[in-house]
Fold this protein.
Amino acid sequence: MDADMISTNICPLEWRYGSKEMREIFSLRNIVKTYIKVEAALMAGLVEAGLAPRDCVEVLEKCSENIEVREVYELERVLGHDIASLTYLLGERCGSCGGYVHLGATSYDIVDTTWALLLREGLGIVKRKLRGVLEDLADLSIRYREALMPGRTHGQHALPITLGFKLANYVYELSRSYERICSLEARLIRSKISGAVGTMAAWSNKGLEVERKASEMLGLEPHVITTQVAPRDGFAELVSVLAILASQLDRLALEVRELSRTEISEIYEAGERIGSSTMPQKRNPVISERISGLAKIMRGMVMTALENIALMHERDLTNSSSERILIPHSLVTIDQMLEDTQRLLKTIYIDVEKMSENLKLTKGAIMAEAVMIKLVEKGMPRHRAHKKLAELTRSMGNRSLEEVLEMDEEISKILSKEEIKAALDPKRYLGSYRGLIDRAIEYMGQVLKKC
């Protein structure tokens, strides 16, 4: 890591979090490069509509090659406007074609269309990494399909499950996020080429032709109608969808953190990193904790995205400053969370024996529902059976539930010792877990195939 980078950058997303490929997409260099790409597409639209000379697309592409980011933002200090600064530079360097640069366009034709192009790339990375997480989870779910463990509700032992079943739930949830991203793209990744208030007035009756050619050149579908800006519900949906994904990754990370407690020790991070600066024995779940920490940031960004929907009339500037922070940070943050989740799934240690040992902690009480069901099958009303098992489990003391059941006169008249033993076997009370695991993985496959 470059020491100068650390010392000169305030935001840790610039050097600590997120992959190089994601940070590069939202670098100033790439943003300006994409602005120019959109200006070239707009010029192609003007040429197609007969509003600019035919050679101006080629001229613009050539004269823009040596424009540097530094120049744009030095001029912005004078003009107070980054897109105007870029168009002035292009206007000065592109000869007679410079007089047609940005003709009839507004700055947000360039900015919003640039966001669409950057987000198309960024969401491509998100989907690729989320696909990797899903595939890793599916593999673990299959591998640990039969690994018995306590299912927990309210932090207490509830019923037996398998680790494969637990992980299949995450496969399903994260598949739904993948599905949301795919659905979102159709509404979000669109061009905005429509002029100062969205009417295309500067291009007379040729606005749709300008829009069509520019959009086609960029490989985008245009928004159906806009004001000066694309509707901000798309960005709000983006951040909300990513925050949902972040919260799901947080839930998975919290699962690992909880199960790695010393008192539970069923799963823990098995990397070689130092756990504590002072306590050598510690195996702190640092990757999981970072996932959970960044999820807080993602959820916090949703409010800003929602606030940006309400702009005055055909637009005001309140969205601009916040989106410069909001959009790149949302993508870089979720990128880091996905990278961490992939690393977590490849380094966790799963202690199957400890899971089996923990299943016995309640001395059979975890199987109380199974016994209740057996009593109902034998003719006892469900509410009476429920009350009976509640009384017996609360009076077990140091005895096992099996001992208590065999000693109880009412129960021993209804259930034989063999039936009691069978009812207390966790392997016999897993329901349709195999079919449910298969169904979750099949659902994942269908989602990944569609998008």
Notes: The two ends are 36 Å apart (CA to CA).
